[in-house]
Specification:
Rossmann fold; 8 helices; alpha/beta; two-stranded antiparallel sheet; 6-stranded parallel sheet; 226 residues
Length: 226
Amino acid sequence: MPIQYSNFHDLRIPMPTTVFLEELLSAAGRLAKAGRRTILGIAGAPGAGKSTLGTRIVEHLGPSRAVLVPMDGFHLANAVLLARGQRQLKGAIETFDDAGYAALLQRLVAQRAGETVYAPSFDRNLEESIAGSIPISPDIPLVVAEGNYLLADQGAWPQVRACLDESWFLEPEPEHRRGWLIARHIAYGKSPEDAREWALGTDERNAALIGSTAARADRVLRIADL
């Protein structure tokens, strides 16, 4: 189905299709075909529900059929960001190892029988990546890749997009997304004032860039009950 657009401040904004969670779980199940590796990309702005949806898919299908491989595992370390004077920009597109994530997905596309690939995860309490913490068996048919910049057109991100068999862009109501994001920042230790400042400052600047990539998705979605 072609994406429809509406004009808003001279931008071409994809109009999201409203779906229920059950529809997406069924769609993911159809992608998880035994004997075939498929990579599903879930993109969207901070607080859009990417990791929540990815986790729901894996829980629904079970660990023998699906695994979640988050882009957040490729955050540059805080020490690196401090050395580069970018600690306050953490989460911006230039603060990720895009080539590393592309290389991981390429390995997963070409994964051989008997080979286990290990991916990093991201610990929000530490705000650091944890290397080698997600084992991926070649027998798992569906890899769910989720992250902000999967559809970006700079750096190595086009190589990431080329690995995705299907891509979904999540676009919830902006005020709902911002409110949930502020609550998440508070839950992980920020004061209400700092959480609001980060969500409406750094996160919102990143969201503008991420939103401009939505047209490269196969489906632009607003989930009714996530």
